[in-house]
Amino acid sequence: MATIHWPVELRHGQVALRPLRAGDGAEWSAARQRNVSWLRPWDATQPPGAEDGARTFRAMARDWNRQARYGRMLPFVITYGGAAAPGARAKWPLVGQLTVSGITYGSARWANLGYWVDEQYAGRGIVPTAVALAADHCWFALGLHRLEVAIRPENKASLRVVEKLGFRYEGERPRFLHIDGDWRDHRIFALNVEEVGPGLVARLK
């Protein structure tokens, strides 16, 4: 297994990724609450018969950071400097979340990427930049080989993200994930490290 780099902060321009913290509960919950209708069609849900697993935000954040230290996932929040005064780095607001999950080493060396953004910040190039930052970190710092993104066919905004970054379409997986109360079809997009040259951040330039 590669050396685990956690906690880690990544930044390009006005977009930054930092670890989800136990103290983010109020800001994270406020963002989720004002975006309920915006996010509901894409949110993961528990299938029938599954245990609810309800827990506090603080417990979730601590668990995810523990898993990050073991190299199993990377739970980032997305922050954006365009809404803050110049130089006020500590005040950059939380505008979304990006999670690298299912990290696998050995002969596979791959992971999944998932993300959401506050509707009021959509369309500013924030998510493509965040995905590029996380992907480059996974390839060049963690030594992963393949990154995969699963997107519902109806999610046009998310499809534009992978198109902009050059992710390769690999096909559709019927009833792949339990989303918004039912098993939903997803389109699978992927990139291997050999396909990205100097990385995705470089593609943004």
TrEMBL record:
InterPro entries: Acyl_CoA_acyltransferase (IPR016181), GNAT_dom (IPR000182), N-acetyltransferase (IPR051531). The keyword Isomerase does not apply. Keywords: Acyltransferase, Transferase. Residues 15-194 form the N-acetyltransferase domain. It comes from the Bacteria. Gene3D superfamilies: 3.40.630.30. GO terms for molecular function: protein-N-terminal-alanine acetyltransferase activity. GO terms for cellular component: cytoplasm. Belongs to the acetyltransferase family. RimJ subfamily. This is Ribosomal-protein-alanine N-acetyltransferase. The lineage of its organism: Bacteria, Bacillati, Actinomycetota, Actinomycetes, Propionibacteriales.
